[in-house]
Amino acid sequence: MLKFTAEHEWLKLEGDVATVGITQHAADQLGDLVFVELPEVGAELTKDGNAATVESVKAASDVYSPLDGEVVEVNQAIVDDPSLVNSDPQAAAWFFKLKLKNVSDIDSLMDEAAYKDLIG
Amino acid sequence: MDDQSVLKTTPLHALHISLGAKMVPFAGYDMPVQYPLGVMKEHLHTRAAAGLFDVSHMGQVIVKAKSGTYADAALALEKLVPVDILGLKEGRQRYGFFTDANGGILDDLMITNRGDHLLVVVNAACKEQDLAHMQANLTDCDVTLLEDRALIALQGPRAEAVLAELWAGVSAMKFMDVVEVPLHDVPCIISRSGYSGEDGFEISVPEAHAVDVANALLEHPDCEAIGLGARDSLRLEAGLCLYGNDIDTTTSPIEASLEWALQKARKAGGDREGGFPGADRILGELANGTTRRRVGLKPEGKAPVRSHAKLYADAEGKTELGEVTSGTFGPTVEGPVAMGYLPVSHTAAGTTVYAEVRGKFLAMTVASLPFITPTYKR
């Protein structure tokens, strides 16, 4: 199941763990990324709280946690090479995996059609 | 969209749109921050080949003495600027700044001797204020903002070759030379200078012909349009100040490490010592030093440290030293670069200080400026 947030994140749910990244639209808007800071494995994130930071040449931007949960894995590859987020944001450049506190919370997020309407 | 409707546009605005630029408000103008190439590639392209920048938002101002002589215009402007303008030769350009009575910096500018008058180029955000300042103080001069000219910067190691397609004589120019020549029969004023740390030119073009000249330059395979995003990372790697960030009315030229811009004639013992606003403080700091200085800062990690990040002597944030005034990722340096002010006790190259970024204290090393080796054609 693929879901989206208004903050331009995508979530792919497998069991009770959601893989989280930023959308192609977000990556395009941010421009060339030069720095990524990810949460620690084990961190407890709350919906809409700060989860990660990305920086382009021009500016720093926050990435928010789409739902409540615990970080169970992070993608070191995008820390080592932030440009991966620009080239493959919706697959190889996932950010972190979140073990959801309540799996059913994901139903409140947008599906792909609704997200596409949002970004026009 | 309401914000956009009040923004001014430059003569190249439609060209930016047609090239697919992402436009942002800057100093009251709708300006290209980047093109489809993106900030990173635009920056690297400028260092490797040639970049074309629209800097038409900057103010081009003619200062002409009512007497008609260059010397009278030069001596008048010297009352506002601590630079030797009288000694500037015809067809030569020099960097300077307007100072205030406290020795702070009102704006920085480029000053050219154009034979019987001065051409000065000031920052977009300050141009109305600068114009009023000159008109109020240079009462024996006519001070005129040129509102019908575009300004196009062409920067990079291939800039000469690109411009040579339009005018073969360009190769004879040296850094800070200024000439008036026709490009495609359009009378242009060309200076060999810029804001990137690279060899290059700034070309003042009559508004009606700006698009033609820009397109003629962009036709060259080595030349790409470059936005304000890369302009900022290029100038920061080159150690050049951005007015409003690195210098303003709270910083003196000596604190800003700009003493190289003051020539002998205006310093203690010179033919025209002092005689500019804030001279007591500025000449006093030249003689006795100052408490803080602008320095280069190289973050040790990968995280960019941006302007207004606080600087500390220790990794716990106990002893505050100063603030970062510009900071970004330097594509050529392949890492973050910054500038800021530190007490003179901490300005030796190699000194470690700590910047507060998102609650963490990141080590930075004081570095000599510029971060790259400039390629000006001296």
Automatic annotation (TrEMBL), chain A:
Per the record, residues carrying N6-lipoyllysine are: 58
In this protein, which residues make up the domain named Lipoyl-binding? 17-99
The family database entries (InterPro entries) matched by this protein are listed as: 2-oxoA_DH_lipoyl-BS, Biotin_lipoyl, GCV_H, GCV_H/Fam206, GCV_H_sub, Single_hybrid_motif
Q: Does the keyword Hydrolase apply?
A: no
Presence of the UniProt keyword Transmembrane helix in the record: no
Where does the source fall among the domains of life? Bacteria
Q: Which NCBIfam families match?
A: gcvH, PRK01202.1
Q: Which family does it belong to?
A: Belongs to the GcvH family.
What is the protein's given name?
Glycine cleavage system H protein
Name of the coding gene: gcvH
UniProtKB/TrEMBL annotation, chain B:
Presence of keyword Methyltransferase = no
Q: Which UniProt keywords apply?
A: Aminotransferase, Transferase
Q: What are this entry's molecular-function GO terms?
A: aminomethyltransferase activity
Write the Enzyme Commission number(s) for this entry. Answer: 2.1.2.10
The answer to whether UniProt assigns keyword Transferase to this entry is yes
Q: Which SUPFAM superfamilies match?
A: Aminomethyltransferase beta-barrel domain, Folate-binding domain
Which residue ranges does the record assign to the GCVT N-terminal domain?
Answer: 12-264
- Could you tell me the superkingdom of the organism this chain comes from? Bacteria
One Pfam family in the UniProt entry: GCV_T_C
InterPro entries from the UniProt entry: GcvT, GcvT/YgfZ/DmdA, GcvT/YgfZ_C, GcvT_C, GCVT_N, TrmE/GcvT-like
Q: Which residues form the Aminomethyltransferase C-terminal domain?
A: 292-371
Reactions accelerated catalytically: N(6)-[(R)-S(8)-aminomethyldihydrolipoyl]-L-lysyl-[protein] + (6S)-5,6,7,8-tetrahydrofolate = N(6)-[(R)-dihydrolipoyl]-L-lysyl-[protein] + (6R)-5,10-methylene-5,6,7,8-tetrahydrofolate + NH4(+)
Question: Which family does the record claim for this protein?
Answer: Belongs to the GcvT family.
Name listed for the protein in its UniProt record: aminomethyltransferase
Q: What is the lineage of its organism?
A: Bacteria, Pseudomonadati, Pseudomonadota, Alphaproteobacteria, Hyphomicrobiales
